[in-house]
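Summary for the funding panel

The consortium committed to producing paired sequence-structure records for every protein in the target list. Below we show the first two records in order, beginning with the earlier of the two.
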Amino acid sequence: MTTGTARMTTATVTATTMPTDPRFLTLAQWLSPSFPIGAFAYSHGLEAAIADGWVRGAGDLQGWLEDVLREGSGRADAIWLWAAMATDADLPALDARARAYAASAERVHESARQGAAFASTANAVWGLDVPPVLLPLAVGAAARQAGMPGADTVALYLHAFASTLTSAAIRLVPLGQTEGQRVLAALTPLCAELAEAAQDRGPDDVYSTCFLSDIAAMRHETLTTRLFQS
């Protein structure tokens, strides 16, 4: 009797992995909610918009943030970021111009306080030399000095901005955590799109047609009761 021997051939699959760029992890740290710039204290006028009934749920919030990102502060900040990352960037001049373009006193306060806090921490931890300028300019200057990839820096900045406002809406509307995360997930592709588009723009291209957002920022200054500084 012939005994057949079954032979099993095992294929060894070797997975090819790409090394993680440590710069991306540093960017994630800079733009995470745990970075000590006090972002949680600001609503960018969203608190006034909610108080006035302009934002009442997840759908309203998503539309509001899409407009702010595409036609308001998000687009402007992306342009300022790219400008600050240029090798010949004149930060004092850019800072003066960005402050002049701000729609309200609270907008200047919000960006200036966070920019100074960002610069202080980034300089102390990473040995950078970032002056206390408005937040997008401070992040851009730090990214240039640390050799960060431009598009990733701007996209993560915009995503962090949207995340901060989503967190504010979760507390103010009130909005469920899951609904808030759906809104943020829906905005993610837009952040990447705007980061790329802003690369070919300059300070002369900064504008805002997000009028309700600008009005909300001004109205917030006179709110009697408020949780946020802007």
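The next record, for a separate protein in the list, is shown here:
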Amino acid sequence: MSLSIYYSARRPTSISDEEQAEIDKVLARYCVDSRVKRFAETGEGLNWQPFGISPSKDSSAGDVVFEGSTPLPDNTEEAFSAGVVHWCNALSALRRIIHKAMWSVRVEDQEIAWDYQHDRYDPAK
């Protein structure tokens, strides 16, 4: 049974061109496409899935500026936690770019807390 991480950011103003350029950099930095390809070709590594972003026209509400979900790897004992940490790091970087938004990050129904002291999502809390 595969679990997923879900994320959304809500605010009244849409994402600016400058924010989108920074978002694209973060998405490139945390991209796992090469790992997905390697696993598909060789069966080696974790069974990663690409980071999913829903098109804004498909958003769940009018004020959603960023939203999506990604299945977490689950083919080894360490896979799930490695996936959660990886995507929490990516979402932390995205939250720092998409200012003044109400964020929700969760694995299934379990909300992941934002650590204000360390400015990041901490799945251990």
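Regarding this second record: The chain has a mean pLDDT of 94. The beta strands are 4-10, 64-71, 102-107, 110-111, 114-115, 120-121.
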